[in-house]
């Protein structure tokens, strides 16, 4: 583990690093920055993953999240066919209270100090405008605004990829990719969830939504009066006759409490790390609930930001994101062939690609 404090580099080693190549702890006292940058793998190329800005309860919690998220990015990038490994950064604190230009520039300097081993982008709590600031201190920054040479909001293609994953799941389970009249519940209608609503409404699905922010739900229901708002996620997952549940907020949505009461036949959403712990994927399979692996179906955003590094073309990216449909079907087929849950099948395919890259 590498600890960077006010520009001074210290090297620490921990036995529980989880196979990560490098973990950087960043602190800049002048701006109040405290951050963690985790590089899980560079087997396929420079690590690529977003920057999460969140008020973690402790530094230990922040490190754990960075480790989990960066590992997930390795698998996501491998399954998306990108020449990138996995990395993730988390900034500790409430972005509404402590985010400043000075803090973002300090963060950018820490990313730049890694010399291109990690390429950053947006995530929960960070936006295109933030990446424009970070890019002033670090050229290894994506998710910038079109005015600054970037691709703009990556949530558009993230939602499109999740939509394709839903269509593939419907095809696998019901023999028809159409989502018309399907009852679909979305937990979290923020950057990605609101775009996902648009796709589902256009296909005339029955859409139910919830979010911890009442304003976000109000905006959706005002724009789409047929969309049904429910009180919270606990109510959403119990909606009678729910066909698809889409977790689109923070991770851990599928756990020992939610899986036993989930009414949906399919889980397919944008949130990272939806499985709260190993074994949940088997619990889903035991209940004959089809799980579309999160890092497969939510890869549209990373496809977009990766393309930005080579000169962004939206239609080219959308065509790549559309292939999430075929990738999801291939995972279901592999799962059936190997007699394992889809999450395990996706892991096997991703690990195979990374292992082949290491041997080259």
UniProtKB/TrEMBL annotation:
UniProt keyword NAD, yes or no: yes
Keywords: Branched-chain amino acid catabolism, Cytoplasm, NAD, Nucleotide-binding, Oxidoreductase
Reactions catalysed: L-valine + NAD(+) + H2O = 3-methyl-2-oxobutanoate + NH4(+) + NADH + H(+)
Transmembrane segments: none
GO molecular function: nucleotide binding; valine dehydrogenase (NAD+) activity
Catalytic site: 88 (proton donor/acceptor)
Broad enzyme group: oxidoreductase
Pathway: Amino-acid degradation; L-valine degradation
Domain of life: Bacteria
Residue ranges annotated for the Glutamate/phenylalanine/leucine/valine/L-tryptophan dehydrogenase C-terminal domain, each copy included: 152-360
GO biological process annotation, one example: branched-chain amino acid catabolic process
Localization per Swiss-Prot or TrEMBL: Cytoplasm
Binding site residues for NAD(+): 188-193
GO CC, alphabetical: cytoplasm
Database matches in SUPFAM superfamilies: Aminoacid dehydrogenase-like, N-terminal domain, NAD(P)-binding Rossmann-fold domains
PROSITE patterns: GLFV_DEHYDROGENASE
Quaternary structure (record): Homodimer.
Family membership noted in the UniProt record: Belongs to the Glu/Leu/Phe/Val dehydrogenases family.
Protein name (record): Valine dehydrogenase
Organism of this sequence: Streptomyces flaveus
């Amino acid at each position: 583990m590498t600890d960077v404090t006010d520009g001074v580099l210290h090297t620490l080693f921990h036995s529980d690093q989880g196979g990560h190549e490098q973990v950087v702890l960043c602190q800049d006292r002048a701006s109040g920055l405290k951050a963690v940058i985790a590089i899980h793998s560079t087997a396929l190329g420079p690590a690529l993953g977003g920057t999460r800005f969140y008020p973690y309860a402790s530094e230990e919690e922040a490190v754990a999240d960075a480790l989990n998220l960066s590992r997930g990015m390795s698998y996501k990038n491998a399954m998306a066919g990108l020449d990138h490994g996995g990395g993730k950064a988390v900034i500790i604190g409430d972005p509404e209270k402590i985010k400043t230009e000075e803090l973002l520039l300090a963060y950018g300097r820490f990313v730049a100090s890694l010399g291109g081993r990690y390429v950053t982008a947006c995530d929960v709590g960070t936006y295109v405008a933030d990446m424009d600031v970070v890019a002033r201190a670090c050229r290894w920054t994506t998710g910038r605004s079109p005015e600054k040479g970037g691709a703009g909001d990556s949530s558009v293609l993230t939602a499109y990829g999740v939509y394709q994953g839903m269509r593939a799941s419907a095809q696998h389970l019901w023999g028809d990719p159409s989502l018309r009249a399907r009852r679909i519940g979305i937990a979290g209608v923020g950057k990605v969830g609101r775009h996902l609503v648009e796709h589902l409404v256009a296909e005339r699905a029955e859409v139910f939504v919830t979010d911890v922010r009442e304003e976000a739900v109000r905006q959706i229901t005002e724009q789409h009066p047929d969309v049904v708002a429910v009180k919270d996620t606990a109510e959403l997952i119990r909606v009678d006759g729910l066909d698809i549940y889409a977790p689109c907020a923070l991770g851990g949505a599928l756990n020992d409490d939610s899986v036993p009461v989930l009414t949906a036949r399919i889980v397919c959403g944008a949130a990272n790390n939806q499985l709260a712990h190993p074994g949940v994927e088997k619990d889903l399979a035991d209940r004959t609930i089809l799980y579309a692996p999160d890092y497969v179906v939510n890869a549209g955003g990373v496809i977009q930001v990766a393309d930005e590094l080579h000169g962004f073309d939206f239609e080219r990216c959308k065509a790549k994101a559309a292939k999430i449909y075929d990738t999801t079907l291939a995972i279901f087929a592999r799962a059936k062939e190997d007699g394992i849950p889809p999450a395990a099948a996706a892991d096997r395919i991703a690990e195979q690609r990374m292992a082949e890259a290491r041997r080259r």
